[in-house]
Amino acid sequence: MLKIRKFFRYDNIGLVFVLPAFIYMLVFVGYPIISNIILSFQNVTVKNLVAGSKEFVGLKNYQDLFQDTVFVNAIFNTLLFTVSCLVIQFIIGFALAVFFNQNFRLSKAIRGLLMMPWMIPITVTGLIFKFIFGTDVGVLNFALQSMGLIQNNIEWLTTPGTAMLAVIFANIWIGIPFNMILISTGLTTIPQELYESASIDGAGKLQKFIRITVPLLKPTIESVLILGFIYTFKVFDLVYVMTSGGPVNSTHMLSTYSYKLSFEMFKYSMGSAVANVLFLILLGVSMLYLRTTTKEEA
Amino acid sequence: MKLKKVTSLVMATMLVTMTLTGCGGAAAQESTEASAEEATEASAEESQVEEAATTEEMAEEASASGDVTIWYYWENESHQKALDEMIQGYNESQSNVSVEAKYVPFADFKKQLSIGASAGELPDLVILDNPDHASYASMGIFADLTGKFDVSNYYEGPVGSCTYDSKLYGVPFGSNCLALYYNKEMMDAAGATVPTTWDELKETASMLTTDKVSGLAFCSLQNEEGTFNFLPWVWSTGETSYTIDTEGGIQALTYVKELIDSGAMSKECINWTQGDVMNQFISGNVAMMINGPWQVPTMRAEAPDLKWEVALIPQYSQYASGLGGENYGVIAGGNEAGALDFLGYATADEQVKFMMNTMGYISSDKTIAETQFTDDAVMKLFVEQMQYAQPRGPLAEWPDVSDAISLAFNQVITGAATPEDAAKTAQGTIDSIVQ
Amino acid sequence: MGDEKIISGKKNFILSGVSVLILMGLLFPLFWIIVTSLKTEQEIFQIPPTLFPKIINLKSYAAQLGTGDFNMFRSFANSMIIALGSMVLAVVLAVPASYGIAKYNFKGRKVMLLGFMVTQMLPVSVLLTPMFIMFRNMHTYNTPIAAILADTTIGIPFSVLILKNYFASIPKELEEAAYIDGCNRFTAFVRVLIPIAKPGVIVCAIFSFLYAWGDLAYGMTFIIDQQKRPITAGIFNFMGQYGTKWSYLTAFAVVTIIPVALIFIFMQKYIISGMTSGAVKG
Q: What number of H helices and E strands is found in chain C?
C-alpha cells in the first residue's frame, strides 16, 4: 500500500497523463518499427514474400547498400534537401510570423489565408510545381524570359542540379505556413508586460527581439525545428511526384529510394534497410536534441 | 539513454503487438487460411488440397459459386463502364457466382498487391499489366492455369507474358502496342513523306522541327513506361532486352542521343508520360510521336480538327514495337473455381469483341484481332504493328532489368554518360540478374 | 504579442499593402491551379503559357461530380469522418500527454518524449504492410476506423511536441492557486490549464485535422472500397496509367480545397481568437 502511494507521489502522476497516448503509439507504430528492423536483416524478395523460408542474412543488406552509389547519393541528397529547406523556410516563416503579429487591419485574415497551401493534397502540389517548372510550357521560364532575366529556357527538371533546386523550392513553399503558424502561436505566449517594461527601460525594437522574443520562444523554436527536421527528412510524395528521383537518380531521397526498392523492384528487405538508415539518422539527431534540452532544464 | 530502458521498451512493444498481430511470422500461413475462409461456400475441398484439383472439370462444375472480387486499375471511365457491363452480364447469366470489380489505382497497384500478398488479403482475380505478371507468378500468388484455357490461337507475346517456368499462370486480357503518329498538316507543309527507316525518321524529324515544334517525342521516363517506349529501338537492331552492350544496343542509344542533340526531340521527354506526349502532340508542340492505340479515343474527342495519321515505327534492320496490355491472373487459394467460371465467360468471342472495341484494345486472340477493325484505318495499322510487338520479359526480376535500361537511356539523354558507358553499366546490372 | 493596439492610418495602409503582396506571391501556385483548371487540355500545353484562359472551360468541373464509382460528395463525407475522428482522438490523447511531460518530472520522461519522436522516423511506405496486417487482425481493414487510427499516429506526436511548450510556459502559481480553490490534479488540469493552453490546443487540432485530411497513403491502402475512400483518393481518377489529365486534376484540387477553405474562413474568428486570446498574461 505504501509502495503504491509512494509511486503516486507528485511526479509519477504525470505517467497517468502520458501513458494513454504513449501506449497508443507503441501499439500502432511500435510493431511496424520492429517488424521493419527484422525485415531488413532477412532476404525477402518477390520469390519468398508469400511462402518459403525467410533466412536471416545479418548485415548483408546494409553492406550491399553502401556499395550502391544511388543509396550513398540519396543520403547526401536527403541531408542537403533537409538542411536547405529547414533553414530557408524557418527564416521566412519566422519573418512572416513577426510581420503578421503586428495588429494592422488585414493581418489576421491574411495570416489565415496563408494556411491554404496546407489544404492542398501534396500530390497535387507536386504536380502543379512540376508544371510550373516545365521547360517549354512552364510559367516560371515564361516569367523569367518576359522579365529579361534569362535568354533561353532553363531545363529545370531535366538537369540534375536544377531539379534539386526545384524540389527544394516546392517543399519550402509547403513548409512556410507550418513555421509561420507555430511561431505565431508561440509569440502569443510571451507576456505583453515584458515588452512594455523593456520599453520603459529604453530598449529598442531589435534589442527587444533579441532579449525577449528569441529566448522566450526557444522551446517553440526547438520543437518547430526538430519536427521540421523529421518531417522534411522523410519527404516522399513531393519528390516522388515531381521527379521520381530523376533525372538519372539525382534527386533520390532515402524515402523515395526505399519505396522504389520495395514496391517497384520487389526488393522488400533492401527497401526496409534503406528506411532503417533514415530512421537511425533521425534517431541520432533527436537524441542530440534531447540531450541539449535536458542540460538546459537541469 | 540507458540501454536497459530501451530494451525494456522494445520488449513491451513486442509483447503488446504480438497479441494483436498473432506474431508476424505466421502471417503467411494465416493468409491462405483467411482467404480460404472468405471463399467459404466456394470451394472448401479445392483450396484445402490444391493438387487434388487435377480433376478440373469436376472441381469447376462442383464448386463454382460464391463471390469473386476483381482488382483492376483502369481509371478511364469508358474502360470501367465496359468492365462493369461485362460483369453485370455475367452475374445475370447465372446465379451461383457473383462478381464484383474493385478499382485500385495504377500508381498503387503493385504496392497494394505486394501488401495484400504479405498480409493474405487478396482478391480472387486481378487484371494486371503484362510485364509484372512474371514477378507475381514467381511470388506464388497465381493459380496454375495450364491446360484450362486454350491459348493456341493467341499472339505469342501475350501468352509468353503469362507464362512462368513453362506453366500458364494467366490469360491475356487484351493487347496494344506502339506505333508512330504524325501530324499530317505539318508533314505536308514541310513536304516530307512518311519515314520508314531510322535515317528517314531523323531527317523528317529535323525537317519538322521549328523553334516552337519538336520533330519527334516519345515518353522517356526513368521507369517501366519509359522502357516500354525505348526498347523498340533496341529490338529493331535485332538485339534483345538483355543484350544492351552490343553494337545494336549502343546504336539505339546513340540514335536517341542524336535526336536529342539535333534538337529534333525535346529533352523534356524524360519527364513526360505517354499521356503528356499525346497532349504535346495534340497541342501542336510535337510533330510526330510514338504512342499507343488507347490514346485514339481521347485524341478524337479532344482535338477533332487535328489531322493525324499513324504508321509503323521506322526500322533499323527489322520492325519492332512494344507489347502492352493486361492479363487476367487467378489468385491461388481464393475462389479459384468462381474466378475460372467467370474467365470462361469473359474470354468467349462475344465478350472479347465487346471489351476490345469499347476500350480501343486489340484482342490477344489473332482471329478476333484480324477481323476486329474493318473500316478504321488507324486501328488496322495497330493490328498490323502487333505482329512486330515483343513482350518485356517474361522474367521475375524484370523490374531490375527495366530499371537498368531506363537508367541507361536517361543517362544518355541528359548527357550524364556516353552511349557506350551507359550500355556497359546497364549490361553489368543485367548480367548480374540474368545468368 | 507585439503591439496590442490596432495600427491605423498610413502605417496600416502600408502594412496591409505589403501583406497583400506577400499573399499574392505565396499563393501564386494556388492561382495557377485555378487558372489551369479553367483551361482546355490543349491550352494547358500551349507554348508560351497563357496567364488567363482564352475561353473559360468548365467541363473539368462538371466532370468532378461523377467519374465511375467516384462520388465527390460521398468521398467528402468520408474524409470528414476520418479527419474529424482522427482530430478528436489525437487531441484527447495528446493534450494530457503533453501536460504530463511538461509538468511532471517522472522517471523515463525523456525516453517517452524520444519515443513519441521515434514513431515519426520511418517513412510511411514501410509502415504500410505491418499496419495492414494489424488492422486486418483487428477487423478494421476496409473501414474508416483503420484510417482514423493510422492518421492519429501522425497527429499525436506532433501535438505532444508542440503542446508541451505551452504547458511548460504556464506558471506553477496558477496551478497552485487552483489547488487552493479545491481542485485536484485532474480538475485543475481540465478547468484551469486547458483553457490557458487553448491556443496551442486549437493549433494542434487544426494540424491533426489537416494531416488526416491530406493523407493519401493510409486511406488508399487500408480502405479498398472506392465508396469508402477519402476524397484525396479521387486524384487517381485523373492521374492514371497513361498519364495525367491536367485540367481535371486541377479542377479536382480546387473543389477539394474550397470546402476546407470555407470552413477555415467561417471559423477564422474562433480559430484566431482561440489562438491569441488564451495567452498567458503576466
A: 14, 2
In a domain, B20, yes or no: no
Beta-carbon separation of B77 and C67 below 8 A = yes
Judged by CB atoms closer than 8 Å, whether chains meet at B103 and C226 is answered as yes
Q: Which fold has domain C68-237?
A: MetI-like fold (1.10.3720)
Which residues numbered 93-152 in C keep a CB inside 8 Å of some CB on B? 108, 110-111, 114-115, 125, 128-130, 132-134, 136-138, 141
What's this model's pTM, rounded to 2 decimal places? 0.88
Contacts of B73 in chain C (CB under 8 A): 240-241
Decide if A11 is inside a domain: no
- How far CA C167 is from CA of A19, B170, C161, C178, in Å, comes to 17, 61, 11, 15
- Judge residue B21's burial from the number of C-beta atoms within 10 Å of its C-beta, 0-12 exposed, 13-18 middle, 19 or more buried: buried
B149 and B78 together in one domain: yes
| Dist CA A202 CA C217 (whole Å) | 55
**Residue A109: pLDDT band by 50, 70, 90 thresholds?**
confident
For C40, name the nearest residue in chain B, comparing CA atoms only: B302
Query: Does B331 fall in a domain?
Result: yes
Q: Which of B273-282, C85-94, C157-166 has the highest mean pLDDT?
A: C85-94
Domain presence at residue A258: yes
Is C282 in Cβ contact with A104 (below 8 Å)? no
Question: Which one, of B34, B81, B41, lies nearest residue B338 by Cα?
Answer: B41
The set of chains that have 3 or more CB pairs under 8 A with C is A, B
Domain range for A224 is: 60-297
Instruction: Sort out which chain B residues have CB atoms less than 8 A from A50's CB and list them.
Output: 28, 31, 117-118, 139-141
Nearest Cβ partner for B399 among A247, A266, A287: A266
* Residues B317 and B329 occupy one common structural domain: no
If asked whether residues B108 and B170 sit together in one domain, one would say: yes
- B49 domain residue, yes or no: no
What is the tens place of the pLDDT at every residue in C28-84?
A: 999 999 999 999 888 888 888 888 898 888 888 887 776 556 677 888 899 999 999
Q: Are B365 and B352 in contact (CB under 8 A)?
A: yes
Output phi, psi for A107, to 5 deg: -55, -50
Domain boundary assignment for chain C: 68-237
Q: Are residues B160 and B109 in the same domain?
A: yes
Judge whether A232 lies within some domain. Answer: yes
What is the domain range of residue B304? 177-323+391-433
Chain A, nearest residue to B213 by Cα: A136
Instruction: Please check whether residue B395 is in contact with residue B430, taking contact to mean a CB–CB distance below 8 angstroms.
Output: no
Q: Looking at the structure, do residues B294 and B343 belong to the same domain, yes or no?
A: no
Chain A residues within an 8 Å CB radius of C114: 286-287, 290
In a domain, B9, yes or no: no
ipTM: 0.88
Closest Cβ opposite residue C104 in set A14, A35, A271: A14
Are B65 and B144 contained in the same domain? yes
Q: Kindly report the CATH number assigned to the domain that includes residue B196.
A: 3.40.190.10
Distance between CA atoms of residues B274 and B295, nearest Å: 9
Which chain C residues contact residue B77 at CB under 8 A? Answer: 67-68
CA separation for the pair C87, C148 (Å, rounded): 9
Q: What confidence tens digit (pLDDT) does each residue in A240-292 have?
A: 989 989 899 999 999 999 999 999 999 999 999 999 999 999 999 999 888 87
- SS3 of C98-161: the string is HHHHHHCCCCCHHHHHHHHHHCCCCCHHHHHHHHHHHHHHCCCCCCHHHHHHHHHHHHHHHHHH
Tell me, yes or no, whether A269 lies in a domain. yes
DSSP letter (8 states) at residue B435:
-
Q: Do C224 and B80 touch (CB under 8 A)?
A: no
Structural domains of chain B, count: 2
Residue from A189, A241, A269 to probe the interface with C (highest C Cβ count within 10 Å): A189
User: Nearest chain B Cα to C238, which residue?
Assistant: B75
> CB–CB of A51 and B20 under 8 A?
no
